[in-house]
Amino acid sequence: ILHEMITTLAQPDIIMIGLYGSSYKSKDNVVKKIIRRVERDGQFDVIIKASLGKKNIWWSKSLDVKNIQEELGNQLGLQLQKKTLEERASCLYEKIKMKQKILIILDDLQGEINLTKIGIPFGNDHRGCRILFVANNKNVLSNKMKIPIAFSMDNYS
User: What are the boundaries of the signal sequence (predicted)?
Assistant: First the structure.
């Protein structure tokens, strides 16, 4: 699965992929291995990661855009504390666009999210940006976020 995912991330027409499974430990282990491998191979200039979910709160109320922006921004050296959500998104968007090849890992996806609202450029806005979504089930990836390629950890446990 590791080789398949890394090969998929290298394809120029693939922007987003997903990883799902019931075991947090297995998914986390694969994500760590992907990070190590793409760093070693120089596949991306920058790799950043953020957690999307909060525990014990319904997803629709738990997506903390400000916290996600902060988490990603800190890894890119941005100071976003005194800005509005829109200003933060704009700063993050511009900083990410400055990176030629960047991998953004969004962990604990539980529902649909608006990448533009967070400040993540993708598709024609940034051809060098790849996004790896990590979720508990395929439904969130394929139905909510329309991720074209999703890898199951449950088949490899």
Answer: none
Q: Is residue 32 part of a domain?
A: yes
* Helix runs in 11-56, H state only: 24-41
pLDDT digits 0-9 by tens, 49-62: 999 876 544 444 45
Contact call for residues 116 and 88 (beta carbons, < 8 A): no
Strand ranges, E, within 72-120 = 102-109
CATH number at residue 79: 3.40.50.300
* pTM metric for this prediction: 0.92
For residues 67 and 14, give the distance between their C-alpha atoms in angstroms, rounded to a whole number.
27
Q: Are 17 and 132 in contact (CB under 8 A)?
A: yes
Total domains in the fold of the chain? 1
Which pair of structure tokens corresponds to residue 3? 């080789």
Whole domain around residue 110: which residue ranges?
1-152
157 falls within a domain: no
Q: CA angle at residue 125 from 4 to 151, to 5 degrees?
A: 20
- 45 against 53, higher pLDDT: 45
